[in-house]
Amino acid sequence: MGTHAFPRTAYTKGAEIGQVFVQGEEAEFVFGRGTQILPTLGAEIYGRTEARVVLDANERWFEMGFRMDHLLSGNAATGWTDAGNYFRIEPQWSPDLINWSMGKFIPAPTPVVDNGDGTWSYWSRAIHPVDSAVKTGMLECSSGQLYYGQPGNNPNTDTRNTPFTALTILGVVRALGGFPYTMPTDAARMQTDLAAIFPGATVEASSATVWRIRIPNQTFTAFLQLNKVFWPGYLVADMLGFIDALVDGAFFAGNLVNSAGVAIHPKAFGRLKITPGTRYDPFITP
User: Fold this and answer.
1) What is the pTM of this model?
2) Pick from 19, 86, 242, 278: most CB atoms within 10 A?
3) Which residue spans within 133-260 are E strands per DSSP?
4) 257-268 pLDDT, tens per residue?
């Protein structure tokens, strides 16, 4: 299913315009001040944009692509235009489908692909990796509304979420000397034991369901390195109502950067911004 740049329907005296002739020749499409006013448009964007995550040099990257039946000039960093400069296409990036940013894509290693059917695919790569084998940053595991109404990264605030009975960081079981630790009573004691292994680590708690563990300056050396605090497991109902989902701990999350210092965003989304081309007066609003 194709979509078109600037889709419009034109009317005159309440009737839809089906054809427009210029000097006796039917116009294939008509623009007015940068906006399409005749339904048929020669440059078609085929279907939805495509997305993929690719592995490159021990990092995973989000890439977005789209197909067109016209060759475009430009690239993902500067934007694309058609030969007649009727329109301009620019990729936008978002980590959450709420906040959208320009300037977050560069050309993919293979930026243009000839599909052999009269169409070309144009590929962009986000500047933020979605993961990296080597990465560094703060690890955090929290539960409940701890600070300024912000929820923890552990959505389950069951009172059975303590005592903590084990801890694994970067895939290594950490032998703290004082297990088990019950929140909030043992928060200070756990912090002392944890900081002996990880300087600067903190444990804060105001109740059995409101707590936070933070471990700074951790460096990963592989993609899959477990980071989890454990407690005695219990079963809860899954989405179908069956009591068979084991809850035995919570995973750490982190604000991490790769070896080049670029922030890692595990979630990434893309969309296309389409605007009038340079052939139109930029001071006239379509």
Assistant:
1) 0.76
2) 86
3) 135-143, 145-147, 150-151, 166-169, 172-173, 202-205, 211-220, 228-237, 243-251, 253-258
4) 999 999 999 999
